[in-house]
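Lecture notes, part 5. Sequence design as translation. It can be helpful to think of inverse folding as translation between two languages: the language of shapes and the language of residues. The source text, in structure tokens, appears below.
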């Protein structure tokens, strides 16, 4: 009697096997914390006394509106976003336009302004902290010009501006490289047609370059807005929110609420407030600029 043929085992698609490790890591370090923090936002939760966990409902969220520190951190964060995102985008676009011309040692020039983007944010922050110090490089340069030095990071009027300048300097090279790559995708025929019509540099920039770069500009605005809402390392290293709360930001407040005060429920509510605000600003940026930055819509 012949043996019955064994049933073939279903083969797992190789794509599933290849993606499984990534899916596990993504689920463990991204999806689970996202969901767990959402649950925590509705609880009174202290990791040192888990047995005392209780339901808070919307209390953690309503607490935000009466929290003076939250409102101050929100104001500082919004000032940071509004003060850095447009400047960084415009400066990056200007650098990319400069690269379209004849620049001596263009490769070295690109590497030079892109280098801060790959350096550690902690290292850059420490260098600028020394640069802004009372006896640092900036005040030394001012003294050579006969100008009295200033406590840039100890004065509430200049501390946040000093961090904003550092952020623009560190980030502009990364976005300039993105714009430079986007220029390669603009058909040369557009510029040839503009030249035949007698368009100068300004008209070509307005009616050809900017509309063609529209999707990339929106992309840069969105990711730069999200990154600016999450500003933390620079503030933590340089000022820790001081002086007098002048540089206190939302993510710094999230950190202190969670890891210093051990108020994980309120910290989670703060984190979701940052998430919602960055999402709203990103959507506004996309809707605001997308209709204007399209070919034929520049007029």
């Amino acid at each position: 009697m012949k043996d019955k043929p064994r049933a073939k085992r279903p083969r797992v698609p190789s794509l599933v096997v290849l993606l499984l490790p990534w899916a596990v890591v993504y689920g463990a370090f991204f999806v689970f914390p996202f969901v767990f923090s959402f649950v925590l936002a509705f609880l009174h939760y202290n990791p040192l006394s888990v047995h005392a966990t209780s339901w808070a409902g919307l209390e953690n969220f309503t607490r935000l509106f009466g929290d003076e520190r939250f409102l101050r951190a929100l104001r500082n964060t919004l000032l940071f976003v509004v003060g850095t995102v447009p400047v960084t985008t415009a400066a990056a676009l200007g650098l990319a336009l400069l690269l379209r011309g004849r620049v001596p040692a263009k490769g070295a020039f690109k590497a030079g302004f892109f280098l801060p983007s790959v350096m550690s944010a902690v290292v850059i922050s420490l260098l600028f902290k020394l640069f802004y110090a009372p006896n640092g490089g900036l005040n030394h340069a001012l003294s050579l010009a006969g100008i009295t030095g200033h406590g840039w990071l100890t004065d509430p009027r200049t501390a946040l501006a000093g961090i904003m300048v550092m952020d623009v300097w560190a980030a502009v090279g990364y976005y300039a490289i993105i714009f430079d790559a986007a220029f390669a995708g603009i058909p040369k025929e557009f510029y040839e047609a503009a030249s035949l019509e007698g368009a100068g540099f300004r008209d070509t920039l307005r009616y050809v370059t900017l509309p063609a770069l529209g999707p990339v500009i929106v992309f840069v605005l969105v990711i730069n807005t999200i990154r600016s809402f999450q500003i933390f390392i620079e503030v933590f290293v340089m000022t820790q929110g001081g002086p007098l709360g002048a540089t206190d930001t939302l993510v710094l407040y999230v950190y202190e609420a969670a890891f210093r005060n051990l108020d994980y429920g309120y910290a989670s509510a703060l984190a979701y407030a940052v998430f919602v605000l960055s999402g709203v600003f990103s959507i506004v940026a996309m809707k605001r600029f997308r209709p204007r930055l399209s070919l034929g819509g520049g007029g």
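The translated text above is only one of many valid answers, since several sequences can fold into similar shapes. The chain has one domain: 64-289.
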